[in-house]
Design goal:
This protein is mainly alpha-helical and 387 residues long. It is 80% helix and 0% strand. Pfam families: AI-2E_transport (PF01594).
Length: 387
C-alpha cells in the first residue's frame, strides 16, 4: 500500500494542450477567472470612489490642457503660484462667459414655458390616443412606462450630480485639484520616472509626451469642433425659424461631444421644440435633414481635419466605452471615456505584451490577418489549388 502511494506521489502531472495554456504558462481556466475577478474589483472601486475620482480626472484633463498657458507665464518669469492662479483665472473667465451666455438664453426661454406646457400636454394626449388605437396600449400602461422612464432618467442624472459633488466640485474641488497638479507637476513626473527602471526612461518619456500631446490636441480639437457645430446648428435653426435657435444650437453642439448618443439627443431637442411651437411636420423634417447634413460634415470633414488627435479609437470600442462610462459615472463618464481609452492605447502600444490590446482599440485593420479565421472559404480554395 505504501509503495502504491509512493508511486502515485512521484507521478508527473498530465500536460495541458497548448491551446489551454496562456503565453506565461498559466492554464487558461485559471487565468481567465482571475482576470474577470480583477476587472470586477477594478470597476467596483471606480464606482465606489466616483465622487473622488471623477473630479480629479476632469482636473487632470484640464490641467494638461492649461499646461502650455502655465508654461508661457513661467517663461515670462512669473512667480510659480502667480502663474498658476493667472492660468486658472483665464480658464474661469472662458467658462464664465459661456455660462453667462447660456443662462441669458435660458432666462428668455423661461418666458415661453406656459405656452410650451399647454402645447406639450395637447401633444401627449394625441400621442396617448394614437398608441391606444394603433397598438392597443392602455393609458394606465403608458403612464406606468412613462413613470419608469422618468425614474430611470432621474437616477442617471442624479448619479452625474453626485459624481461631481454638485456645484461644489465645479467651483471648489476641480480648481483646487488643477492648482495642486500644476504646482506639484515636477514631483509627480519625477515619481513616474523613478518608479520605472532607468533603462526604460526614454520609453516613459515618450509615453508621457505622446499622452500630453494626444490629450491636448483632442480637447482643443473638440473645443474648435464644438464652436463650428454650434454656429452651423444655430444658423440652420435661424433659417428654419425655430425659437431660441442660439440656445438650441449651442446645447446641440455640447451634446455632440458625447460620441454617437449625444448627436441623437441634439437632434431630438429642436425637433421637439418645433413640434410644440409650430403646426405640421415640415419644420421637424427640415430640422432632421439639416442636422443630418451637419453630422455628415462633422464626421467626414470637421473631425478628421480639426480634431487632430494622435490616437484613433475604432467605432465599436468608442460606443462600448461611452455606454460603460455612462453606466458607471453618468454623463461625466461619457465625456471621460474616450480620453481615458486614448491614453490606454498609447500605453498599450509601447508595451510588447499589451500591443494586441492596443491594436484592438485602434482603427487600423491588420494586413496579415489569418485567412483561416477571416475568410475560411478563401483558405479552403487556396488549399485545394495546391493539389
Amino acid at each position: 500500500m505504501g509503495l502504491f502511494f509512493k508511486s502515485r506521489k512521484h507521478e508527473s502531472a498530465p500536460e495541458l494542450p497548448e491551446w489551454l495554456t496562456t503565453r506565461d504558462g498559466f492554464p487558461f481556466y485559471i487565468k481567465a477567472p482571475m482576470v474577470l475577478i480583477g476587472l470586477y474589483l477594478f470597476f467596483h472601486i471606480l464606482d465606489s470612489l466616483q465622487e473622488i475620482i471623477v473630479p480629479f480626472a476632469f482636473a487632470g484633463l484640464i490641467a494638461i490642457l492649461l499646461n502650455p498657458i502655465y508654461n508661457r507665464f513661467q517663461r515670462w518669469k512669473f512667480n510659480k503660484i502667480v502663474a498658476i492662479v493667472l492660468t486658472i483665472f483665464i480658464a474661469i473667465l472662458v467658462v464664465g462667459g459661456i455660462m453667462f451666455f447660456l443662462s441669458s438664453q435660458i432666462v428668455q426661454f423661461g418666458d415661453m414655458v406656459p405656452q410650451l406646457e399647454k402645447k406639450t400636454m395637447k401633444l401627449l394626449d394625441n400621442l396617448q390616443e394614437w398608441l391606444s388605437t394603433t397598438f392597443g396600449i392602455s393609458t394606465e400602461k403608458q403612464m406606468s412606462m412613462l413613470d419608469e422612464a422618468i425614474n430611470n432618467s432621474r437616477t442617471y442624472v442624479g448619479k452625474t450630480v453626485n459624481t461631481l459633488f454638485g456645484i461644489i466640485s465645479f467651483f471648489v474641488l476641480i480648481p483646487l485639484y488643477i492648482f495642486l497638479l500644476l504646482f506639484y507637476k515636477p514631483l509627480i513626473l519625477n515619481f513616474i520616472f523613478e518608479v520605472f527602471d532607468e533603462n526604460n526612461s526614454d520609453q516613459v518619456a515618450e509615453i508621457l509626451q505622446e499622452t500630453k500631446g494626444a490629450v491636448q490636441s483632442y480637447i482643443v480639437g473638440l473645443m474648435i469642433e464644438t464652436t463650428i457645430i454650434a454656429a452651423l446648428n444655430s444658423v440652420a435653426l435661424l433659417i428654419l425659424g425655430v425659437p431660441y435657435a442660439l440656445l438650441l444650437g449651442v446645447i446641440g453642439a455640447i451634446l455632440n461631444l458625447i460620441p454617437y448618443i449625444g448627436g441623437i439627443i441634439a437632434i431630438a431637442l429642436p425637433v421637439l421644440i418645433s413640434f410644440i411651437t409650430k403646426d405640421g411636420y415640415t419644420t421637424p423634417l427640415l430640422i432632421i435633414g439639416a442636422y443630418t447634413v451637419i453630422q455628415f460634415l462633422d464626421n467626414n470633414i470637421i473631425v478628421p481635419r480639426v480634431v487632430s488627435s494622435k490616437v484613433s479609437v475604432n467605432a465599436l470600442i468608442s460606443i462600448l466605452v461611452v455606454l460603460l462610462g455612462g453606466t458607471l459615472w453618468g454623463v461625466s463618464g461619457m465625456f471621460l471615456s474616450i480620453p481615458f481609452v486614448a491614453v490606454l492605447k498609447i500605453i498599450f502600444d509601447r508595451i510588447d505584451e499589451l500591443k494586441p490590446w492596443g491594436k484592438l482599440l485602434g482603427d487600423t485593420m491588420p494586413e496579415d490577418a489569418p485567412v483561416q479565421v477571416v475568410n475560411p472559404r478563401e483558405a479552403d480554395e487556396n488549399k485545394q489549388s495546391l493539389f
